[in-house]
Write a structure and sequence with these properties.
The complex is a heterodimer of chains A (about 180) and B (about 220).
Chain A (H helix, E strand, L loop, with lengths): L11 E2 L14 E6 L3 H13 L2 E6 L2 H10 L4 E5 L7 H10 L6 E5 L4 H10 L3 E4 L4 H14 L1 H14 L2 H5 L10
Parallel strand pairs in A: 2-3, 2-4, 4-5, 5-6
Antiparallel strand pairs in A: 1-3
Helix pairs in contact in A: 2-3, 3-4
Chain B lengths: L6 H10 L3 H19 L10 H5 L13 H8 L1 H14 L9 H19 L9 H11 L10 H8 L3 H9 L2 H15 L2 H6 L8 H19 L2
Helix pairs in contact in B: 1-5, 2-4, 2-5, 4-5, 5-6, 5-7, 6-7, 6-10, 6-12, 9-10
Classes of the chains: A alpha/beta (about 180), B mainly alpha (about 220).
Chain lengths: ~180, ~220
Amino acid sequence: MLRVTFTHGDITVAAKGCFALNPNRDTRCALIVDDERVMRQLLADSLARRGFESTHAEDGASALRALSEGRFDLAFIDLHMPILDGMELLRLMRARGNETPFVVLSGSNDLRLVASAVKLGASDYLAKPFSDADVTAVLDRIFAAVPERVEVERAADRAASPVERQESSTKEPAGRE
Amino acid sequence: MRAPGGCAMRTHGQLLVGRQPILDRAEQICGYGLLFRDSKGPSRTSSIPHPLVNSVALRSRQRISTVNHAIAMLGRQQMRRWIQLALFGGSDQLGLDDPLLDAAAVRAGFMEQLARRHPTLRREREAPDEAFMIGILSLIDSLYDTSMEELVHELHLSPQSTDALLRREGVFGHLLAFVERTERSPFSEAWESSGDLGLDLEQVIEAQAHAFAWRAPMTNG
């Protein structure tokens, strides 16, 4: 099974299934971008209970790298981060044509920023502190709205990716951009 | 089907619609629930105390000595909201951690907050209360084996509440339709298809965040 490791930044890859080099995935993959390790873990636990695998990034720069190297069904992006904050990350994602749906994570004082993020294309938001039920609800809303798109993308991935690509563990992951 | 024949529906529904003496009495009962808790009596009565016990106000070390004190600590309006939700749940029908009750809390709270910010409704003193009530009642047919038409007829609602609940018409109806869309679609899509709500994006997000924060003590206990 392909495993991708990044050497810079705090990007922890939850192994199988999260990247385009393994398109025959039967799980959904989320990118969690937050500078608080505890928050990343809480969200990852919540997502795991819904069958998601997660890749973690502690800042916008690491997230941008992960997004260029792999493919995600959904990204959770904190608005306040060092190095490259959430809003700047969103602008760069869209400028580079990255269409990954994203949910912004905000504090209760960030509501104007949330509105700006929605204008930039954020699908939804989660206000901290959020519960397991809140995460479930946002997943239900998003994947009720996009199942067809996701299935089309997966089918395209499968068609474009011969079996031998999966067997090569030495290749770098294909970027989607 | 949770209440064959709709008898319980009539009881709870009529209470929900807000006969003043009944809600006043419920406040008193609720206050007694707090007193019991404070005096190491029953920590939970049939349907009301759970959200109360989890409230920030009650996590303080301050002793509650009178019913009026309990009401003052929580805020009269807050208490009335919880009572309305508890009546919606009903002690024998829904657990307080039931997803339907959680949905009712968020929907009703969101409706109330939107009404507080709406350019027309915010000038009407009763509009937030009515919006809250419409939010709860819009889910009540999920509880009872009765059509919404029958419920509305039974409860003798105002014309604008009736329009909202049956046809999603009028200001309350448009707000309710939007709130329902936010429950089944990503927020951005609900907003894009909302038409002219009379509110800007920041106001709507603020209203929704307030609604989530308001219901949090009930579910994060």
